[in-house]
Amino acid sequence: MNPQVTAEVNSTYQYLIGGCLPADAPTYVRRRADSELYEGLKAGHFCYVLSSPQMGKSSLLLQTACRLQAEGTACAVVDLKSLSSPDILPQKWYAGIMYRIASSLQLTNRFNALKWWNDRELLSPIQRLEIFIERVLLRSLQQNLVIFIDEIDSILNLNFSTSDFFAFIRACYEKRVQRPEYQRLTFAVLGVAAPSELMRNQNSVPLNIGRPVNLTRLQLHESLPLAKGLALKAFRPQKVLQEILAWTGGQPFLTHKICHLVLEYGSFIGRNNEAQQVEQLIKNRIIKHWEERDLPAHLRRIRDRLLCSRCDPSRLLALYQQVLQHSDSEKSEGIGGVPADYSPEQMELLLSGIVIKYQSKLIVANRIYESVFNQFWVEKELGNLAPYREALAAWLAANREDESLLLTGDSLQEALEWAADKKLSQEHYWFLNLDRAFAEKSELTAARVAETSADTHADSSILSLPLSENFATTSDEQKLYDHIVSCVQTMAPNQVIDRLRQLFIDGMGYPDRDIEAALYNIVSVKNFDREFKYIIHRCCYIPINRWQLHSQHKYAISNLIALFKQTSPRFGTEFYIVKRLQEQIAAFTKSAEFTTLERLVKAVEKEPAPQKEEINSALGELIGRYPYLYGHSLLSKDSIDEDQKTIKILQAQRQKQFETDLSQYLNFLAVKQEDTPTKIIVPTKNPTLLNDDELHLAVREFAGKVAGDRTHKELAQFFLRDVRQTPSYKAFKVELYEYLLSAIEPEYGGRQFNDRLYKQIKNILPENDSVKLNNLLLVRTCHQLFNFLVVENPERPSHYVFYDLVHNLGPSRTMALLLKLVLLSRKVKPELEKRFSILFNHYEGKSADEIMWFIKSLENLNVAMTVNFSNADLSLIKQQIMME
Question: Is the pTM of this model over 0.90?
Fold first, then answer.
């Protein structure tokens, strides 16, 4: 390519990812909607563009406005998103619309718009808007005028009806008969909404007198402007664009993004390599780790819309699951999809963008959505929404042996009805159909379970891993799991570890050639790359789940994990398959899944050491001391129920041991202080890293009377009793602020903390201020306060407030502040534990003496949890505290 042309292409073909394309952008693709909207508005018709997000509405608006303005038409744009906050009043909302119209048309230079509006405060907001249009706008401008109302879906957030607004737009068109000046005025509405959502009174909706403008997907013949920019990186740019459209289905945002990725990250694409290289780029840069790579948010917006829909999310996902199933089963015949009937759930799916209507049927919009939001993803999210999920979790935690936890009667019938139209993961069918008369029905309903089940000699406790759509057939993987189960059941731990070394580290010469072949099949398929860490993680947990139950075998867990990091293959490194296997093992050792296994080793193997030794350790070595961190620090986000059960067992054992040790030591201290020589004092060790004075202070804070004659637990009970009578959530937040103040030193709080706490509480869920307090609001309030007081999430582990509290109030008083929230609802206890896990993981590599403030906090929290949430016998120490 000519260097001058190359420079021109490089400087002008900047594919925009998100936002609005500039009016002169060479990468703007003109579609049929461009001419429909332009011609409709030029003819004076009311037009509306309602579609899924990121389909190019804003760019369409800008392009159309520029074309109209070039011909002498005045254009005003009102972005309702910036106006439509849930707490805005009608008069301010309408005033904002008026001001944005006036500002867009530069009328604010001629008159004081806000004064004009306020001078007519006796009139309703809609009357003032009508008068402004008629007496100011149409008199000031003599040319044709188009008002674009963008982000119309924002009105769904308002706490008042907008029927008058739509009736006003319709009235402007009806006035054309008697008032000719109104013929110069035209409206266009754009947004993400169904017509039925915008207004209930269909008689006054202007949409039924207007023209819909459909934003279709990008077609190859329309999209050729995009191909010119690809010429820098491709021998056949149009062919590359064709392959991109095959993945995006013509979705504008995704198409622009992939074109950008080709320029930014792709190597030169030669002839006949287009399909392969585009697929590799999309899988590596978009599908792989999509939640982290999705910037600006697109896939996450679709996910959130599905899971936080106005429709029942479970019904929405069940419908989408049907679309996926039909697509899979009928794709070869070219007739996939679910018949469109425009139900609320179908409209919501269409508005999310995940499906489109094609030949009167709903189909998945593109291959990228089908890869990300695949059958496994739907099954996982449906499992999270199951109304019986807590009962299922308890049954699985009981190793599926406690039949008293199974549903019966009406509860079972309701669960079966909920699950009837859904495909769920295997454990749901075990739970709902175990020892039931309709086992045959279960097999018919759970076709996938039957396809992926192991042979009759396999361990039925092995569950499936999260897999992609390209990884749904798991016969080789299941064969691998079944073999490891057999080894664990028949061999000593050292023999099992040696077998795993031969299989995963050496990669050649395994005694069972059939198992070696299954591993080769997995490793050789590129689609398995991103899943291999889950497979190897599951393979590790199969022996761990069994060794953990036998103390004489626990030593083997650390040897197993060390196998992957400290061992290299003994031979065969010149072979491709061994190299590929080692690449995957190396990637596994750098993954979050492997990190959780390393922590597990420390928790299982390392017994608490004397205080001096612990202080010289890194924080990560202390994980065994804090069972309340296990659920978040020893498990990955994709851990299956079997692994979770193992951690719960370990957690329960360690919590019980600490409770026993703490009660013995505290009662030992209490007896030791009494002058009764006849009593025999049995010495015992301090199980905490606090000295005796610090421990006494902590127990006094968490178990003693802190307000008159009441403990923290009693204060929480009285507070809950009283606030249930408050008239509104807003009033509850005021009471909550006063409730928390008792844990804050006045001198510290008076400087700035109390003000910050008050503002924080005041701004929590303001849209619910007028409703009555309920359990959900209580839990969500505590969650947000934990974000403020401790830390929000792993991506932003900023914790200045917590650090400041500990250094000013001390660890005990800070933990008391958090305890006051936890005592309001047991449901928030895991959330607090999660926050401390985030901080633990953040400081994991620090030496204990560098972060002693944090360790003291962890120790105090350990004591607080034991005192308030266990059955530890603290009678003697409590009696002593009461006597002080």
Answer: no
